[in-house]
Amino acid sequence: MRPGSKVLYLGAASGTSVSHVADLVGPTGTVYAVEFSHRSGRDLIGMATHRTNVIPIVEDARHPLRYRMLVGMVDVIFADVAQPDQARIVGLNAHLFLKAGGAVIVSIKANCIDSTAKPEVVFAREVQKMREEKIKPKEQLTLEPFERDHCIVAGIYRQT
């Protein structure tokens, strides 16, 4: 993410991390922040009143067609949805909004996807699902010791 980037942030919550992304992309960039929870969405909307480059969207990221009129093509998708079907959610949004060669950053919380499997197994499965969604993983980092059983995967979207 750099100044001027257009970012689709899935799982925006109350907007704390979104505000940092908004600072990174600056006034010429845009952050489309999607959050499902109405309570968190209220806080997100409040934060966005102070940041003109954030467009809050209170909607389910599983249904990107519901917000397609609000979101343009983006350079980056940042996903922090913590759902068992998060790779599918990222794929649905990438196919609609992400430019070819665009970046994908996914936060994977192993216990939110499969609490019965070892985190390494969950991470490997999610990376494979990302590949099936035409996302080529470039880097995977564990968040230990800061967050247990979490990792970040960064990749590139290939439409073909």
Q: Helix proportion of residues, in percent?
A: 25-40%
CATH class annotation = Alpha Beta
Order of helices and strands: EHEHEEHEHHEE
Second-tier CATH architecture: 3-Layer(aba) Sandwich
Q: What do we call the CATH homologous superfamily?
A: Vaccinia Virus protein VP39
> What is the third-level CATH name, the topology?
Rossmann fold
Spans with pLDDT under 50 lasting ≥5 residues? none
Total number of beta strands: 7
Distance between the termini: 23 Å
Largest sheet: 7 strands, mixed
A few lines on this structure:
The protein has 160 residues and is an alpha/beta fold.
Write up what this structure looks like.
- Helix 2 (38-48) links the parallel strand 2 (30-35) and strand 3 (54-58).
- It is built from five helices and seven strands, in the order E-H-E-H-E-E-H-E-H-H-E-E.
- 32% of the residues lie in helices and 31% in strands.
- It has one domain: Rossmann fold (3-Layer(aba) Sandwich).
- It has helices spanning 16-25, 38-48, 86-97, 110-113, 119-132, and strands spanning 6-10, 30-35, 54-58, 74-79, 98-109, 135-142, 150-157.
- By secondary structure, it is α/β, with parallel strands linked by helices.
- It has a seven-stranded mixed beta sheet, with helices on both faces.
- The mean pLDDT is 92.
